[in-house]
Design brief:
single chain, about 300 residues, alpha/beta, 8-stranded parallel sheet, 12 helices, globular, Aldolase_TIM, lyase, HMGL, PYR_CT, metal ion binding
Length: about 300
């Protein structure tokens, strides 16, 4: 399976203090050194809406480049795609929010308009040769409208799949999902869009994130998002705390013999460094508890 490291984008976007461009580039450099090969590095949204990510072009100008490394940028509109193309990203991630209320607060449009935007952006990105991910946000619940019907999410999957993305991601934006719902939705994507990779993005707000991640993999998901240190959250969703932590997820995957190509010890060290940079210990537990066995050897 594959991991997408999202700390530079989703991880830092909710921090109360601005993080320097050099620090963001160093975080990306450390992630690459640890073995991350897909990194959601930047967001091409309004600097007024998300000031933490206003330096997307400067970050992209400083990241280490290699053929095997793929950098993604979050894109909401045509202007964002223009910026992403100019900055030289390899992938775009376009978000379609599952409810109108959250969509208006997050993107200033209804869900229907969000789908239409995705269709236009997908066509342009295809022409430009970019990898295209569409993320259905609030797929497991909305902070304003409450429960989100699994039937409705399946319908959204059908709609967004028509634009032929390489990947469809389910995002538990506020951390309310449970393994049973995860299994059903991942299975539904495989039926509706069998030629599309399934990706999942979980928050550990209510301590179900890691169980959800394993349920997703067990149901056939191909890709998981994770954030070094477990930092992150959505600035438009009340109490949407951090993503699942890359190091904590890696520990479980490594112990179960699931290969990712990412070095656990290096990610742990980066998580501790992030805590120093941000002035607070990160939510990830492994940096405090340590790996087991301490040598990093896999269990017999």
């Amino acid at each position: 399976m594959h991991l997408v490291e999202v700390a530079p984008r989703d991880g830092l976007q909710n921090e109360p203090e601005l993080v320097s461009t050099d620090t963001k580039i160093e975080l990306i450099r450390r992630s690459v050194a640890a073995g991350s090969r897909r990194i959601e590095a930047v967001s091409f949204v309004s600097p007024k809406a998300v000031p933490q990510l206003a330096d997307a072009e400067a970050v992209m100008a400083g990241v280490p480049r290699a053929a095997e490394i793929s950098y993604a940028g979050l894109v909401f509109n045509e202007r964002g795609l223009d910026r992403a193309l100019a900055a030289g990203v390899d992938e775009i991630n376009v978000v379609v929010v599952a409810t109108d209320t959250f969509s208006r607060r997050n993107q200033g449009c209804t869900t229907e308009v969000g789908i239409e935007r995705w269709e236009r952006l997908a066509e342009r990105a295809r022409t430009a040769g970019l990898w295209r991910t569409v993320t259905i946000a609030a797929a497991f619940g909305c902070p304003f409208e409450g429960e989100v019907s699994q039937r409705w999410v399946a319908e959204l999957v059908r709609r967004v799949a028509a634009a032929e993305p390489e990947e469809i991601a389910l995002a538990d934006t506020i951390g309310v999902g449970t393994p049973d719902r995860v299994r059903r939705l991942v299975t539904a994507i495989a039926v509706i869009a069998p030629n599309v990779l399934v990706r999942c993005h979980f928050h550990n707000t209510r301590n179900t994130g890691y169980a959800n991640a394993w349920a997703a993999l067990d149901a056939g998901a191909h890709v998981l998002d994770a954030s070094t240190g477990g930092i992150g959250g959505c600035p438009f969703a009340p109490a949407a705390t951090g993503n699942i932590a890359t190091e904590d997820l890696l520990y479980a995957l490594d112990r179960m013999g699931v290969g990712t190509g990412v070095d656990l010890e290096q990610v742990m060290a980066t998580g501790r460094w992030l805590g120093e940079v941000l002035g607070n210990p990160v939510p990830a537990l492994l940096g405090r508890a340590g790996a087991f066995p301490s040598s990093g050897a896999a269990p017999a």
